[in-house]
Amino acid sequence: MSTTTIRVTKPTRDALNRLASQRNETLTETVSRGVRLLQQEQLGIDLSHPLEPEELEWLDVDLG
Predict the structure, then answer these.
(1) Can you state the angle between helices 10-22 and 27-48, rounded to 10 degrees?
(2) Residue 64 domain-assigned?
(3) Structural domain total, the chain
(4) Strands (DSSP E) along 1-64, which ranges?
(5) 41-63: per-residue pLDDT in tens?
(6) Is residue 32 part of a domain?
(7) What pTM, to 2 d.p., does this model score?
(8) Alpha carbons 64 and 57: distance in angstroms, whole number
(9) Cβ atoms within 10 Å, residue 34
(10) Residue 49 domain-assigned?
């Protein structure tokens, strides 16, 4: 796995390190978990929007 460097504020770095330590994880594991949770949150936001007309039509398709 390749890696890269990202810039965060010192308070953010410290908070991430604390969380990783509390969870007995590496910093990379903790950041990855945070990314996954944010992706799930965004999916929930996206799914909470009303359906578009073409999506509603798709729901009414006869599959029989």
Answers:
(1) 100
(2) no
(3) 1
(4) none
(5) 999 999 999 988 888 888 877 77
(6) yes
(7) 0.73
(8) 16
(9) 12
(10) yes
Return the pLDDT at 45.
Answer: 95
Range of the domain at 55: 10-59
> How far is residue 46's CA from residue 15's CA, in Å, rounded to a whole number?
28
Single out the residue of 57, 38, 36 nearest to residue 46, CA to CA.
38
Q: Which residues contact 23 (CB under 8 A, 6 or more apart)?
A: 29, 30
Give one word for 4, left, alpha or beta, with left for phi > 0 and alpha for psi -120 to 50.
beta
Q: How many residues does the chain have?
A: 64
Q: So what's the pLDDT on residue 32?
A: 97
In a domain, 5, yes or no: no
